[in-house]
Amino acid sequence: MAKMDPMAIIMFILRIFPPILFILFILLMFFSFRVAVIGEEMERFNLELSDALAASPLAMHKAVFDPVQLFEAEKKDPNRNIELYARSCDFGYTLELEAIGGKTICEEDSGKCREFCKTVCGLDDSEIQMSAAGTLTGNCGCNIEVFGGNFCECKKDDEWQSGYHWKYGYTPADRSVSVSSVKASFPVGISSTSGVHETTLPAKLTLTSHDSMLTRLACITQKAYETKTKFSTQMGRLYSGYVGVSPSIIFKRTDTDGTHVCIYYRDGPSLGYLPHDCRYMPDLQFEPLELYFDGSLGENEFITAYPVTSYAECDQLKENYEPLEFDTTVSNVVLCVE
């Protein structure tokens, strides 16, 4: 009868143990592997938006922006809360464009500053009021520096501005109502005319896209209105920024013929509603939605936008809603919490 050698058994186990351990490790890695798809939707939106704006009426040539058109864009809304020439239903955005070169140096002749004020602040000859002493009066002048060169300034929105700078677009009222924001900058140019010669100044275009409660509510409403299909968005963190600030909010249009939609919040003891967060979105008809923060809303609840041909209550829509035909005319959108 053969004898078992304990040492041989131990050495055999030691020899096969590392391969077995390696195989188990490979199996663990294989079954733990997950395919992660990172959408980066807001980053892609910023990139596509920069291309669209670079070829829009704001630009004289590809990515060379026209100061006159930029100033006109700012003036289209007194609060500059407007998204022009390119927009997205899902995200709002802020556009900021500024030159990265030096300031315009003054000379004894005030002509250079006059041209600067026309270009940067959109002033024409009839509006320019040259300051007699630096920038103490008027709306255009040469800022006198004790050290260094004097530079041109003009008054824009009651503030003196010494460089090429424009800004407009949607920005959430405060961070508490913003789900997320993504910023990206792109090299561009600004057309600058000096006498009969046109030059291009190096500049930076900064785009900041925003995802907020307002953009999500406005987007499902627009999609429902235009596609004639109901759309939903999950509550999640959407209302967390208002909890403790106001007992309720209302999502509605600014007025009957208004171009903006807003979230209004209740102003404490006065029980009146004040516009808190607004976004440019014309030609959109919907019923106001009021949300109460009494603890009954949960993160798993949804807000659904129903396109309708005539007004109906939410209970009726939830139980008996029938999709609209393609050639049906949508008269309104009803928003319901589900």
What distinguishing features does this structure have?
6-stranded mixed β-sheet, 338 residues, alpha+beta, 16 strands, 4-stranded antiparallel β-sheet
Q: What ranges have pLDDT less than 50 throughout 5 or more consecutive residues?
A: 34-39
Beta-strand percentage range: 25-35%
Strand order, main sheet: write it out.
Answer: 1-2-8-9-3-7
**Helices and strands: which structural class?**
alpha+beta
Largest sheet: 6 strands, mixed
Number of strands: 16
Shape: flat
Radius of gyration: 30 Å
Rounded mean pLDDT is: 81
Cα separation of the termini:
79 Å
**Order of helices and strands, N to C?**
HHEEHEHEEEEEEHEEEEEEHE
Number of helices: 6
